[in-house]
Amino acid sequence: MTRRLDVVRLWSLAFTLLAGGAVLAMAVYLGVASWPVLRGEGLSFLTGNDWAFRKERFGAAAMLYGTAVVSGIALLLAAPVGIGTALFASEVCPPRLRLAVKLLVELLAGIPSVVYGLLGVVFLRTVMSDLFERLRWDAPSGDTLLTAGVLLAVMVLPTVATLSDDALQSVPSSVRDAARGLGLTRAEAVHGVVLPAAAPGLLSALLLALGRALGETIAVFLVVGRAENRLPDSLFSLAPLVDAGQTLTSKLGGAEPTIALGDPLHTAAILGLGLLLLAVVLALSLGAGALRARLALAQAHRP
Amino acid sequence: MTRRRALDRLFTAAATLSALTAIGVLLGVLGLVVARGFGAISWRFLTEQIRSVGAEGGIFYQAVGTAILVATAAAVALPIAAGTGIGLVVYVPAGRLRRTLEALLHALNGVPSIVFGLVGLAFFFQALGLKKSWLSGGLLLGLMIVPTVAVAFLEKLRAIPAATVEAAVGLGLSRSRLVTSVLLPQASSGLVTGTLLGLSRAAGETAPIMFTAAIFAGATVPHGIVDSPVLALPYHIFVLAQDSFDPRVAEKVWGTAIVLLGIVLALSLGALPLRLKIHEEARRA
Fold first, then answer.
1. Mean pLDDT value of segment B71-82
2. Min CA distance, A182 vs chain B (Å)?
3. What pLDDT digit, counting tens, does each position of A74-131 carry?
4. What is the mean pLDDT of residues B184-199?
5. Is residue A264 part of a domain?
C-alpha cells in the first residue's frame, strides 16, 4: 500500500496550529515591534505619568489608572446584577421561563459596542451631568471615568450572566435535591451548597468579564473625556471618577495610532500599549481557564 | 422559621430584580434606538448614497461594505475553524499539546478587538503596504471569529455518539474518510451556528476595521486590493457619534443603528435555536 498525501490531515493540522499560534504570533509581533520603546523607557513605560509623543516621552501610568478605574466600576456594578440574573435563570425561575431569559440575555450580548457608544453620547452623558449637578459634585461635564464605567457595566452584564449561569448549571441537580430534601430553603441551599460548588466557575466568569471590560474600546472612547496624563495624588481619591480621563483603549481608539505611522519610535510606543493590553487580557483568560479546569476536575472526582 | 422564610423570599426577590434589570436594559436599548431612528427608515434610506456628511441620502454603500467585510470574514474563518475542530478531535493526540492548543484558542477569543486593529495597522496597512483595504478588514474579522466558529463546531463534534465513530472505523474507513463522510456531515450544524454567531459579532465591530479597512465617505465597491477601502455601518455610526449636532444627521445615525442592530440580531437569532439546544443538552449529559 502506497502512502498518499493525506490532504485532510495536513489541512487540519495546519489550521489548528494557525488558530492556536495566532495569539502567540500577535504577542511576539507586538513585543518585537515595541521593543525600542520598552527598552528605552524601561519600567517608566508603566509608571511614568507623561505621554508626550512630540517630546518622545512615553509613560502610560495615567492610562493604566483610567483602565483600572473604569473596568473596576464596571465589574462592581455588573457582578451583582449579572450573578443575580444567573441565579434567577438557574435556581429561581420555572424551566419554561428559563429559555426566554437566556434568549434575552444572549440578545443583549449581541448589541454592538458602537450602539452602546451612541447611547452613551446621546443619553448617559446627559443623565450623568444632570446627576452630578443635583448632587452638587464638581464635574465639568458628563464625560467622566464614572460614565465610562457605568456604560461598560451594561456591556459586560451579559458576559457575567451567561458564564455565571453555566457555572451554576454545572452543579449537579442531585446536590440541590439533597439539600432541599434535608429541609433547607432555596436560599439556604444556594448559599450553603450551590454557590460554594460553583465558586471557581463564578470567579472565572468575573475574570473573563474583566478581560472584556479592559479591552472594550469604542464605547469607552466616546464617553471617557480623553483627558491626557491625569493621575490623582492619592489612588483612593474619588474626585477623579467624576472627571475626564483616558484609558489604554480610548488612547488606542483615537487618531494617535494613525499619526504614529510617520515616526517609528511613536509607532513602537503605541504598539507597546497594545502589548500591555494583550498581556493583561491573556493572563486573565489563562487564569479563568485554569479555574474552569479545577471546577471540571472537582466534578470528575465526585462519586 | 419565619426568619428563614423571609430570607428565602428576599433571595428570590433579589434574583428576580436582577433579571428584570438585565431584561429592562435590553428592552430600553432596543426601544430607544427604534424610537429615535424609526423616522429615518425608508426604502430610499437603504438604497441611496450618503450626501451632505450624513445629513441627506442613505446608507447603501455602508451596507454593501459591511456585507463585503462579513463575507470575507466568513470565507477566512470557515476553513480555519473547520480544520481546527477536526484537528483538535482527530489528529492532535489527547494530552498536553491538545490542552495547550485549546487554551490558546480560548485566549484568542478574549483578545480585545482593538488589538486586531493595531496589528492590522502595523502589519497589513504599513508593513505589507496595503493601506486601507477591505481584504485586511475581512482577514482580521475572520481571524477574530475563528474561536467562536471552532468552539461551536467542537461542541457538535464531541456530541457525536462513540458508536457512530466505532461503526465507521469497523467498516474499514480511513481517518480522512471518517472525517469527510462521518464527522463533517454529522457536525456541520455546529459550523453553521458558529459562523452565524461569529458573523453577528464581526458585522458590529468597529475597532478592527477603523484603521485597516473603513473610511467615512467616498468609497463604493472596491476594485482592487491595495488602497481599496469600503464604507461600513459601524464605522459610520462611530464617526457621526463623535461630532454631529445637526438634528437631521442625528435621526439618520439612529436609523443606521436600527439597520445594524437588525443585521446583528438577525444573525444571532438564526444561531440561537441550535445554541440554546447545545447548552441544554450539555446540561443533561
1. 97
2. 14
3. 999 999 999 999 999 999 999 889 988 988 998 899 999 999 999 999 999 999 999 9
4. 94
5. yes
Q: With CB atoms and an 8 Å threshold, state whether B87 touches A15.
A: yes
Number of domains, chain A: 1
Q: Are residues B2 and B122 in the same domain?
A: no
Return d(Cα B268, Cα B56) in angstroms, integer.
Answer: 31
| β-bridge mates for residue B179, sequence order | none
Q: Is B169 on the interface with A (CB under 8 A)?
A: no
CATH code: domain of residue B246: 1.10.3720.10
Is the ipTM reported for this complex over the cut 0.90? yes
Tell me which residue of A33, A49, A91, A18 sits closest to A274, measured CA to CA. A33
* Minimal Cβ distance to A107: which of B179, B260, B265: B265
Residue A139 lies in a domain: yes
User: B141: which 3 cell numbers?
Assistant: 474579522
Name chain B contacts of A118, Cβ cutoff 8 Å: 237, 241, 253-254, 257
Residue B278 confidence (pLDDT) above 60:
no
Residue A221 burial class via C-beta count within 10 angstroms: exposed 0-12, middle 13-18, buried 19 and up: buried
Torsion B116-B120-B123-B124 (CA) sign: positive
Average pLDDT over residues B25-32: 94
Q: Inter-chain contact B22–A24, Cβ cutoff 8 Å?
A: no
CA–CA gap between residue B208 and residue A11 (Å, rounded): 27
Pair (B33, B146) in one structural domain:
no
**pLDDT, average across residues B12-21:** 96
Neighbours of B163 (CB within 10 A): 9
Residues in chain A: 303
Query: Among A76, A21, A67, which Cα is nearest to A46's?
Result: A67
**A81/B18 CB distance under 8 A:** yes
What pLDDT digit, counting tens, does each position of A32-86 carry? 999 999 999 999 999 998 899 888 899 999 999 999 999 999 999 999 999 999 9
Sign of CA dihedral B26, B31, B36, B39: positive
What is the rounded (10 degree) CA torsion for B249, B255, B256, B259?
-170
Please compute Rg for chain B using Cα positions.
23
Query: Which domain does B2 fall in, by range?
Result: 1-40
| Subunit contact A106:B33, Cβ cutoff 8 A | no
* CATH, residue A133: 1.10.3720.10
What residue in B sits closest to A274 (Cα-Cα)? B115
- Quote the CA–CA distance of A121 and A147 in Å, as a whole number: 10
pLDDT above 70 coverage of chain A, percent? 96
Domain range for A88 is 27-300
* Cα B186 to Cα B183: distance, rounded to the nearest angstrom: 5
> Which of A13, A20, A118 is nearest residue B257 as measured by Cβ atoms?
A118
Contact A166, A211 (CB under 8 A): no
